[in-house]
Every structure is written in structure tokens, then in C-alpha cells.
Design a protein that fits this description.
Strand order of the largest sheet: 1-2
Strand content: under 5%
Shape: globular
Distance between the termini: 86 Å
Radius of gyration: 30 Å
Order of helices and strands: HHEEHHHEEHHHHHHHHHHHHHHHHHHH
Helix content: over 70%
Number of domains: 2
């Protein structure tokens, strides 16, 4: 059953790819049908009891394909399949005139299958297969429009430069940047998994004796965990690896919607939640350093993403920055499990669910707006002409902003209470969280205001796209029942924070833009791309330069200096063997003088 729901999307995409490349026939419906079947199976699986299912894989090493059904995997699997199916339906209309439909549908469905493999895998080795599938599919889809011939597929203002920094990025370059950045984190992750297997001869997350493993390692346990977490850090674009996420907006908007909601970047946060669930860090004091570092890394990434989103001029880049901010919150709150146990993981996971549905909705609306206006920058569309897009945006932004009584408010109030009771670091983490929440609410309102309410109205070039509208309307409506699902009593301070967020939301709608040098600095993402585009390449070139000349020096020493030295010694020996009396005398005198010096030195020491 689980294997079927994982592979069905990819299997049903193969006829679509073959039909397109051989006969230019559009069989996209076949791929969407595969997504639909997978979604139906996840519904069935959701109602099964918690269990693990194993299939022998490498019996000589005791390794099996092991899948797990628990609260996290069943909910995440259902969420992934549901969102992928709705985005697939949306794509039928959005991508129908594309010139690479076979490529798109094969890798879109592979993307979904890979994420489902990551979600349900209990074995770290089989999880790695899905992990690498996510990386491959993201490269293929981010660079889908590889010709770089459409201005709408770029990120940034074409031709703009700041000093030596190029401030615009093409699809082909963005795909390369994404896959190369992710690889930075994958290598230490592989190393950590190898260390864990060497210590335990076990790779199943749920059955591993994590307590014994990390207790035996001592302080090194934090190092191993951080190495393992490097994969999720880069996959979820946490600082300083965030730049690939912004430029990944060169792919089709449907890809961005899937990547930012239920796959790829969510995979990193989900894996951290799953590991923490079974590691039980609250019982392992040796992991305090790792969880403290992840807490502040997550809060810093969250604040950075919120500040950048506040000044973004492009629709999709604003949403990408907001994803970075949300992922930072997920990492930070999950790390609180070291002090507060599983309640922190549950709160982070609920936020992941809310964020996935709301962010998918907003990306699909953004795609519809770009499709209608032929413009990727913020520009006003009369909400009366696109009422479904306006309503979906309003619901999604309210549910995500943390304003009472909407969904994220109840989740964020729980997060706020945990941070309030975190005594180890004073009020610093709570202050960062509250500041980020206010900014987060403001830029969501900015997205609504600049695209529907404020500014100069632009002409729209579209007709009623029923499939596109239906997809994001259904998506956003699923957020409303969650209000009842997470409803609970909250403290007075949480109510006050909710009111402040509501005020920030309203003010941002009334005044969505503010031109200043600081705004330009934030819009340019604080020039963090200099790390990727200037600093790291410069270090790489310097390293190559040093390696080249070191190699030349070794080559010179090995092929010139050493042979000449041996040649001189050989000539000296030959001159002695020719029985030249002068040489004999010089040799004997030198030898005697050396012996006398050594003897004198020993006598002086004694």
C-alpha cells in the first residue's frame, strides 16, 4: 500500500513524458490521475493504526526498506498528496501551452514521489533516496525554462548591478545554484549517517537507541547531530544558505507552490521534527549545545526572511522570503523540545500544516496574477475582476498572519507561551519571535494591498481559468476548519499580541510601501548573495591558485632538486672511488673533526 502511494505519481508521469517527446501529445491528465490515486491511498493510510512495515533490502547488512505510520508521517503524507494533486489540477491550465510538458510532468510527479518517500521512510538509507530525488527534481524544475529567453522567468531587475554583484538571475543559473548549495549540506549529513550506522548497526529512526548513542558520544553527540542537520539546514534554506531559495523563483509558479508548501523546503523541517520526536532530546543533556544553536539559527533566519519580505518588489520573491521566515520559526520551535518535550514538536508541526496550505494558496494566486498581468512585480488588479483570487489571498493571509481568531493565532500563541517560559536565555528569544511576527503580519498585508487595493490599476490579459481558480479556492477553504481544530483558551498576553498583529496588518494595507535606502538594502536581501557570488568563489579561486603552485613546487622539488642532489652525492662518491688522494684526505679529516666535535659535546654535557 505505502509503496504504491509513493511510486504511483512517478509511474503515471512516464506515459505523459513519452507521448510528449514522441508525438507531441499532451497527456497531462494521466499524470494528474496518478497524483489523485496517491491522494486517495494517503486517505486510506491515514485511518490505519500506527505501525512499521519492513521489506528486506540488503540482508547482509541487516538493512530493510522500513516505512512508518505514525501521527507525523500519516498527516504529512496526506498533506503532501493533497497539495500536489490540487497544484497538478492547476497546472493543467497554467502549463498547457508550455514547450516542455513531458519534462515538467515527469519531474513534477517525481518531486511528489520523492517527498512521499522521505515522509514515510523510517530507514535513513531509503530516506536518502527520496532526499536525493528531491534535489534532482528541484534542479530540473527550477531550471525548467532553461532557454533564459523570457523576462517573466527571471528574478531581479534584468541588467541591474551593484558594484560587482549581478542583481538578476536566470533559470539555468538558479537551477545550478540550488543543486550546488544543497550538496554542501548533504555531505556532512551522509557522514553523520555513516557514523550512526557504525555505532549502532541500525538505520531505523523509530527503533534506534538514540539515548545510548548520544550518551556514549558525549559532547561529540552535538557535532554528529549538527552534521546530520546540515542536510535539513540547506534543504530548508536556513542562514547562510538562503539565497538559493530566492532565486529558485525562476521556475514555474506551480513548482514554487509545491516546493514551498509540501515538498523540498518542508522536508528539512519535517525531518528535524521526526528525528527530535524519537531522539527525545529532553532526556539527553549532551545535545544542549546543538539545540541551542538551532534555536538561535532558526530565530535569526526567521527575522532575516521577514525583513527581506517586507521590502520585496516581486510577488514570488516576497512569498519565498516569507517561507524562509516560517521555516526559521519551525526550526526554532522544534528545538524547544529539548526543554519542553513533544509539545514543541506538535506546535511546530501544526504550523507546518497551516503554512503549507496557506503558502500553496498564495503562490497559486501569484501565478494567476502573473499570468493575468504579464508582470512578476507587484501591480494592482481590480479585485472585482478577479474576486476569487482576492478572497483566497485574504483568507490565506489572515490565517497565516497570527491574527485572532484565525488559524495561525492559536498555534503562535502556544509558541509564545513556550518562549515565555524559556528561562535559560531571558526574553531575547521571545523578543525576536514577537518582532518577527509583527513584520510577518505586515508583509502579508502588503502582498494583499499592492496586488488588489493600492497603486495604479493594470490591464489583465486573461479569461476565466476555472481549473486555476478552483484549485486555490479549495486550498484556502481547507484552512478554515483548522480554526476549530486548534481552538483553545489563551492567555491575556497572547490576545494583546494578536491585537498588535491585527493593527500591523491594517496599517500595512493602508501604507504598503515606504521608499528609503533601508528598504532598498532589505529588497537586495542585505547583499547576502555576495557570499555566494563573490566571497565563496574568490576563496575557491585562491584555493585553486595555491593548489596549483603547491603542485608546481612539489613537481620542481621531486623532478629537479632531488635528482640534482643525488647526482651531486653520486659525483662525490665517484670522485672518492677514483682514488684521488686529495679527496681521501679531505674525507678522513672531515670525519675525524666531526667525531671530535661530538665527543667534546658529550664530555661538556657530562
Amino acid at each position: 500500500m505505502i509503496i504504491a502511494l509513493i511510486i504511483l505519481p512517478m509511474i503515471f508521469s512516464i506515459p505523459t513524458a513519452i507521448a510528449w517527446y514522441l508525438w507531441r501529445k499532451n497527456l497531462a491528465v494521466t499524470s494528474v490521475f496518478g497524483l489523485f490515486l496517491s491522494f486517495i491511498l494517503t486517505i486510506y493510510t491515514y485511518n490505519l493504526p500506527d505501525s512499521t512495515i519492513s521489506y528486506p533490502w540488503i540482508p547482509q547488512l541487516g538493512i530493510s526498506f522500513t516505512f512508518i505510520l505514525d501521527y507525523l508521517s500519516k498527516t504529512m503524507g496526506l498533506l503532501t498528496a493533497f497539495i500536489a494533486f490540487l497544484i497538478g489540477v492547476y497546472s493543467l491550465e497554467y502549463m498547457k501551452h508550455d514547450y516542455r510538458l513531458g519534462w515538467y510532468w515527469f519531474f513534477f510527479n517525481t518531486f511528489t514521489s520523492s517527498m512521499l518517500l522521505v515522509v514515510y521512510s523510517d530507514n535513513l538509507l531509503s530516506l536518502l533516496i527520496g532526499w536525493e530525488g528531491l534535489g534532482l527534481a528541484s534542479w530540473a524544475l527550477i531550471g525548467h525554462w532553461f532557454r533564459d529567453d523570457d523576462e517573466l522567468s527571471y528574478v531581479g531587475e534584468i541588467g541591474r548591478r551593484v558594484w560587482k554583484l549581478k542583481m538578476f538571475w536566470s533559470p539555468s543559473f538558479s537551477a545550478w545554484r540550488a543543486i550546488s548549495t544543497i550538496r554542501i549540506g548533504d555531505m556532512p549529513m551522509f557522514f553523520a549517517i555513516a557514523v550512526i550506522f557504525a555505532l549502532t548497526q541500525n538505520l531505523n529512526v523509530s527503533s534506534m537507541d538514540w539515548h545510548t548513542v548520544f550518551k556514549d558520544l558525549g559532547f561529540a553527540s552535538s557535532i554528529v547531530l549538527l552534521a546530520l542537520m546540515m542536510g535539513p539546514f540547506t534543504k530548508s534554506a536556513q542562514l547562510p544558505f538562503s539565497e538559493w531559495l530566492m532565486t529558485a523563483m525562476t521556475g514555474p509558479t506551480t513548482v514554487s507552490a509545491l516546493l514551498h508548501s509540501a515538498t523540498m523546503v518542508a522536508a528539512g523541517a519535517y525531518l528535524f521534527m521526526r528525528l527530535s520526536w524519537y531522539i527525545e532530546p529532553w532526556n539527553i543533556h549532551e545535545l544542549e549545545f546543538a539545540y541551542t544553536l538551532i534555536l538561535f539559527l532558526g530565530l535569526s533566519s526567521s527575522l532575516y526572511g521577514a525583513l527581506v519580505a517586507l521590502a520585496c518588489r516581486e510577488r514570488k520573491v516576497l512569498l519565498a522570503s516569507s517561507t524562509l521566515s516560517s521555516l526559521g520559526i519551525m526550526f526554532a520551535v522544534t528545538s524547544l523540545s529539548f526543554w519542553f518535550g513533544r509539545i514543541a514538536i506538535i506546535l511546530a508541526f501544526l504550523y507546518l500544516v497551516v503554512h503549507a496550505l496557506a503558502k500553496a494558496t498564495l503562490f497559486l494566486v501569484a501565478g494567476h496574477l502573473i499570468h493575468a498581468t504579464h508582470n512578476r512585480f507587484h501591480c494592482k488588479v481590480n479585485f472585482r475582476k478577479m474576486p476569487s483570487a482576492f478572497i483566497a489571498t485574504l483568507i490565506a493571509t489572515l490565517c497565516l498572519s497570527g491574527i485572532p481568531p484565525f488559524t495561525a493565532y492559536w498555534v503562535k500563541s502556544g509558541m509564545e507561551e513556550l518562549l515565555h517560559h524559556l528561562e535559560e536565555f531571558g526574553y531575547y528569544p521571545l523578543a525576536l519571535f514577537l518582532l518577527t511576527s509583527v513584520i510577518y503580519s505586515a508583509f502579508l498585508a502588503k502582498f494583499l494591498s499592492l496586488n488588489f487595493l493600492k497603486g495604479r490599476e493594470v490591464e489583465i490579459y486573461t479569461h476565466r481559468e476555472i481549473l486555476m481558480q478552483t484549485s486555490y479556492i479549495v486550498m484556502c477553504l481547507t484552512l478554515l476548519p483548522l480554526i476549530v481544530y486548534v481552538f483553545r483558551e489563551v492567555s491575556e498576553s497572547s490576545v494583546i499580541v494578536g491585537i498588535i498583529l491585527a493593527i500591523a496588518y491594517v496599517l500595512a494595507i493602508l501604507k504598503p510601501t515606504y521608499e528609503s535606502r533601508v528598504g532598498q538594502f532589505l529588497s537586495d536581501r542585505m547583499y547576502l548573495m555576495a557570499l555566494n557570488d563573490l566571497i565563496v568563489p574568490s576563496i575557491g579561486r585562491a584555493f585553486i591558485f595555491l593548489c596549483y603552485y603547491f603542485d608546481k613546487a612539489v613537481d620542481l622539488f621531486a623532478h629537479t632538486v632531488i635528482p640534482e642532489m643525488f647526482e651531486n652525492v653520486s659525483n662525490a662518491i665517484r670522485s672518492v672511488q677514483r682514488k684521488r688522494l686529495t679527496k681521501y684526505v679531505e674525507f678522513v679529516i672531515g670525519l675525524l673533526f666531526t667525531i671530535l666535535l661530538i665527543a667534546g659535546w658529550f664530555e661538556w654535557k657530562l
